[in-house]
Amino acid sequence: MLAAELGLRPSARAQIVADIKRALVTLVDERGIVPVVVLDEAQGLRDELLHELHGLCSLDFDGRDYLTLWLVGHPSLSRRLRLQQHTALAQRVLVHLPLVAKTDLSVLGDMLDHGLTHAGASPALLTDDARAALLHAARGLPRLLSHLLRLALLLADERASPQIDASIINSALILLHLDHPKQPQTPPKSRFQRDPRSRA
Fold first, then answer.
1. Within 10 A of 58 (CB to CB), how many other CB atoms are there?
2. How far apart, in whole angstroms, are the C-alpha atoms of residue 44 and residue 72?
3. How far apart are CA 153 and CA 158, in angstroms?
4. 128-137 vs 105-118: helix axis angle to the nearest 10?
5. Rounded CA separation 76/43 (Å)
């Protein structure tokens, strides 16, 4: 894929790696552009590919960087990079940033509004109850929030509903086999707060 983006023709693996390195050097030297490559689900990359990535990340022989590589993946990626066979690549990692669940619902809410706005939708697409249920059900995970919202949009379209309400969010939770968001419960009244007629 990287070779295709650089305009290179398919060839043998060893040749294409060499061609990629030359193309990166040319891109930086002649156009002043340092490419950024983001590999999602990187925990599933083959060992051979991880070795080749180390080679591409080692292109700083004259003190300049020729490629910025982001490896994005599950915690198992971090464990793989700690294996002896990947020590060379792990030593090239400048920043290791674990993404944790958002505990501040206002931050998650801002992410939700940002996504809706950039998709050309109004935050009013969600009723207040649906918004609260969605944020609670996402458990602070942006990816789960996005997945739930996409499914809710499909369900709203099927029902020809102009707005996503709490019942649609609950249907999405059922389809994903997730628990319904629990609403805060009002504590029961004490004996002395009840209607006098109900006292024994």
1. 14
2. 10
3. 9
4. 110
5. 6
The model carries a pTM of: 0.56
| Cβ contact 35:67 at 8 Å | yes
Query: Which residues are 36's β-sheet partners?
Result: 68
- All domains in the chain, ordered by first residue: 2-90 (no CATH), 105-175 (1.10.8)
Q: pLDDT by residue (tens digit) across 97-132?
A: 887 788 888 999 999 999 899 889 988 999 999 999
pLDDT tens track for 21-36: 888 888 888 888 888 8
In the numeric block, which tokens belong to residue 157? 């379209």
Length in residues, the chain: 200
Instruction: Report the C-alpha gap between 50 and 32 in whole angstroms.
Output: 26
